[in-house]
Amino acid sequence: MSDHTAPPGGRTVARWGILVGLVLLALNLRPAAVSVGPVLAEVRAGLSMSGPTAGLLTSLPVLAFAVVGALATWLARTLGVHRVTLGALLCVVLGLGGRSLVDGSPPFLALSMLALAGMATANVLLPSLVKLHFPDRIGRVTSLYVTALAIGLTASLMLTVPIATSIGGPDGWRWGLGSWAVLALVSALPWLRLVAHDLHTGDRPRGIGLLEVARTRIGVVMALFFGLQSLQAYVAFGWFAQLWRDSGYSPTQAGLLVGVIAAVGIPLSLWLPAAAARREDQRMLLTVVIACYPVGYLGLLVAPYDLAVLSAVLVGVGATTFPLILTLIGLRSRTPAGTAALSGFTQSVGYLLAALGPFAVGTIYEHTGGWTWPLLLLTALSVPQLALGRYAARPAFLEDQLP
Predict the structure, then answer these.
(1) How far apart are CA 181 and CA 97, in angstroms?
(2) Most buried one in 206, 244, 264, 377, CB count within 10 A?
């Protein structure tokens, strides 16, 4: 029975079931992308993976977000948003479980892409699911699922290696990666029941194309804003461990400092989206959060070793711009269809822009042999990010700007 037609008591139970499903879904939106990084050396040794192939592997998340994410809204419109969400989770299960069993680089890449495709699809659909089922609780529900997402990110960064080493042997990395398939399988169970919501035609998003979103000011601004924020995050998670190793920290300590950046987002994600949703204008909130980026980078420029923890905390606070953007996607659209379209366009275009960040920083680092110019670049990029964020924080609605 859909919660649209259930009696009050049944509707409450249904909403709790949906909330549990959303939180469990969010836990699985990062392990497919980041769990391989901590054991990449072991994966390369176990599969005899070449350097270029490893580079392709680390680029797959961006490709999945940009290409597959753009198809998510069409799939949801055609098949039903809940069915597509269940299918996305099953792709994560098959991809993560399958790649831990194969013996060659090509099937490992293919199964990784399957898992990432499922992750990217669910990532786009989550804001529209919140808008559909909790239109009056966007901030609170976004707080819960973004916190779950941060927990999944932090856990996959910090636990993959311990799981692998607890098994031991040359194939320990298989257990470290395969364990996240179990989490995805458990998380898919509530969605077996939630697919019944697609029997109600009102649950299907009305058609708003990505090209229509591209012709709106709010769509372009949100995509650029999301892209610059994701660029900062990709660089931090991809390169800051090397920065701290160059500054004198051990590999384990450098990895823990990157974990601090992720962990800071867990408590803040519980508060920020709800705080943003309570405000009609979120400019001041966004300004304070984004301003932590250049202050953190200044600490890394002045004393990357002595100020490492403080800088990691500040960069972590800046990275919580991400849950604020997800909240704005729901607040800047009037309907679930508008939320789905804005989410799809924002993330697809944004992740393409974000892909330039790690490449540019790596190139500058290689040619200069230090971190001064990469950190100055990131500091400079925080300026347009702030300007775009302040525009996106002003009250506006996608549907009002559609051609």
Answers:
(1) 5
(2) 244
**pLDDT, tens digit, for every residue of 67-124?**
887 788 888 888 888 999 999 999 999 999 999 999 999 999 999 999 999 999 998 8
- pLDDT tens for 249-288 read 887 788 789 889 988 988 888 899 989 888 888 999 999 9
* Exposed e or buried b per residue across 219-249, where buried means at least 16 C-beta atoms within 10 angstroms of its C-beta: bbbbbbbbbbbbbbbbbbbbbbbbbbeebeb
Ramachandran quadrant class, 335 (left: phi over 0; alpha: psi -120 to 50; beta: rest): beta
Nearest C-alpha neighbor of 256 from the set 178, 304, 308, 180: 308
Whole-angstrom Cα distance, residue 189 to residue 115? Answer: 17
Q: Please state, in angstroms and rounded to a whole number, the distance separating the CA atoms of residues 86 and 193.
A: 10
* Contact predicate 25/18, CB 8 Å: no
Q: Is 333 left (phi over 0), alpha (psi -120 to 50) or beta?
A: beta
Distance between CA atoms of residues 338 and 344, nearest Å: 10
Q: At what angle do helices 321-331 and 336-354 cross, to 10 degrees?
A: 150
The CA-CA-CA angle for residues 203, 149, 56, to 5°, reads 100
- State the pTM of this model: 0.81
CA atoms lying within 13 Å on the CB side of residue 105: 15
Q: Which residues contact 265 (CB under 8 A, 6 or more apart)?
A: 146, 150, 153, 154, 316, 319, 320, 322, 323
Please list the alpha-helical segments (H only) found in 308-401: 308-319, 321-331, 336-354, 356-368, 372-392, 398-401
Count of C-beta atoms within a 10 Å radius of residue 178: 18
Integer Cα distance of 130 and 140 in angstroms: 10
**Whole-angstrom distance, CA of residue 130 vs CA of residue 144:** 11
